Amino acid sequence: MTTDLRRIALTVDEPWPGMYFWVLQEENDDAGIYEPIDSADAPATSYHSALAAGYIALQAVCGQTGPRRGGAVAPLFISPSIDLQHTTLQ
Fold first, then answer.
1. Exposed / middle / buried, residue 73 (Cβ in 10 Å: 0-12, 13-18, 19+)
2. What is the per-residue DSSP string for 25-50?
3. DSSP string for 58-86
4. CA dist 28 to 20, 31, 34, 43, 75, Å?
5. What's this model's pTM, rounded to 2 decimal places?
6. Which residue, 19, 27, 52, 82, has fewest beta-carbon neighbours within 10 Å?
7. Is residue 89 helix, strand or coil?
8. 19-28 long-range CB contacts below 8 Å, 24 or more apart?
9. Which pLDDT tens digit goes with each residue over 41-72?
10. Strand order, beta sheet including 8-16
11. How many CB atoms lie within 10 A of CB 70?
12. How many other CB atoms sit within 10 Å of the CB of residue 41?
């Protein structure tokens, strides 16, 4: 059994001109509502730098199989219940 994949978003905030902070936000139980779970301690001087630093932080949270709730469990392969082969319309 696999554990649930957490919905984590990476955003960049600019509270003051030229000061960029990366922010990791996770969706809570209310669909579509995200709450901050981590952020930069110091500002970056560009959007690109903040985004790159935030991506590194996101990777640290994710591990090899993505950010999961609970313990790491190897995913099971479940074959699709529909036929995915090409069809010919006539």
1. exposed
2. EEE-SSTT-EEEEEE-SS-BSSHHHH
3. HHHHH-TT-SBSSS--PPPP---SS--S-
4. 25, 7, 6, 26, 23
5. 0.69
6. 82
7. coil
8. 19/43, 19/44, 19/45, 20/44, 20/45, 20/46, 20/47, 20/49, 20/50, 21/50, 22/50, 22/51, 22/53, 22/54, 22/57, 23/54, 24/54, 24/57, 24/58, 24/61
9. 999 999 999 999 999 999 988 877 778 776 55
10. 8-16, 19-27, 34-39
11. 9
12. 6
**Model confidence over 36-48: pLDDT tens digits?**
999 999 999 999 9
Amino acid at 19: M
